[in-house]
Amino acid sequence: MKVLITGANGQVGWELQRALAPLGEVVALSHAQLDLANADAIRQALRHAAPDLIVNAAAYTAVDRAEEEPALAQAVNGDAPGILAEEAQRLHAALVHYSTDYVFDGSKGAPYEEIDATNPRSVYGATKLAGEKAISAVDCAHLILRTSWVYGARGKNFLLTMQRLAREREELRVVDDQHGAPTWSRMLAEATASIVSQCLHQGTVADRLRDKGGLYHLSAAGQTTWFGFASAIVAQGEKLPRMTPITTADYPLPAARPAYSVLANDKIARHFGIRLPDWQHSLGQCLELN
Ligand SMILES: NC(=O)c1ccc[n+]([C@@H]2O[C@H](COP(=O)([O-])OP(=O)(O)OC[C@H]3O[C@@H](n4cnc5c(N)ncnc54)[C@H](OP(=O)(O)O)[C@@H]3O)[C@@H](O)[C@H]2O)c1
Fold this sequence. Notes:
Layout: E1 2-6, H1 11-20, E2 25-29, H2 39-49, E3 53-56, H3 70-91, E4 94-100, H4 123-136, E5 141-147, E6 150-151, H5 158-168, E7 171-175, E8 179-180, E9 183-184, H6 185-200, H7 205-212, E10 214-217, E11 224-225, H8 226-235, E12 242-246, H9 266-272, H10 279-289
Helix pairs in contact: 1-6, 2-3, 3-4, 5-8, 6-7
The structure holds NADP nicotinamide-adenine-dinucleotide phosphate.
NADP nicotinamide-adenine-dinucleotide phosphate is lined by residues 6-7, 9-13, 31, 34-37, 57-61, 76, 98, 100-101, 128, 147-150, 155, 185.
């Protein structure tokens, strides 16, 4: 099997390179090597590599900046996934893609299921939802994995930011009224590899995902707030700043976020036997690597 990974230097893309390596030949393309804002470049790269599986880990993930660059966010998050799906169909390949809890508005107050109505509150959320729809509109074998609050030992993320701020500041003021599930990039990559491996045991990934593919939620078990997440991070550090919970209104940002975006992960457990550990457990493991 030949696998093409986009966004190979991102949090998830980097972990995917490692997790998918035992399953086949991996072609890992960074942003510099393949720009998803360039439709022709996507088609050319896919036709040249002719993979059996495309894993799209690239995305315009700057949630606040997206409010100022909606066209670029739409090209990368909304349009490119549809082009990848068309190319996958042409190659009889499968497409694995990641989406976000930010497709929801947060008003449900209970874990969101795949069948729940979407209503993004930000440009980022809206463009990611457009990407899901663009893939679904193409009749290719695909898997869309909606996840949440991704962090890892590498890249730009909340974990690394909190560790830095804890070293630099006496007090950390962190939002305590947004609820979600912090999910380790390595867990996402390993769950993806497990699904791919299961599919390979039963034929090609494309054959299998044509039957069992579609939209799935995949996030860590449990839930917390950004304040709870930050507190758990700094508790493991050398210097303990004063931790102050604040509200979303105390810390205005350009993009609105859902107040509650916990995902229900039962469907992926039922179909693929995958359940990610509690967020605190994975955080502990990730911190041990730092
Ligand atoms: N991060 C989260 O909290 C979160 C939450 C829910 C869902 N997700 C989803 O999970 C997936 C993986 O995200 P992640 O956390 O790994 O994000 P990430 O660390 O920001 O990685 C995204 C990668 O995409 C690349 N990229 C950006 N624009 C691109 C373009 N035009 N063409 C090609 N590559 C481009 C980035 O490269 P540069 O850095 O060089 O631009 C980066 O390497 C994405 O689909 C994201 O929407 C993420």
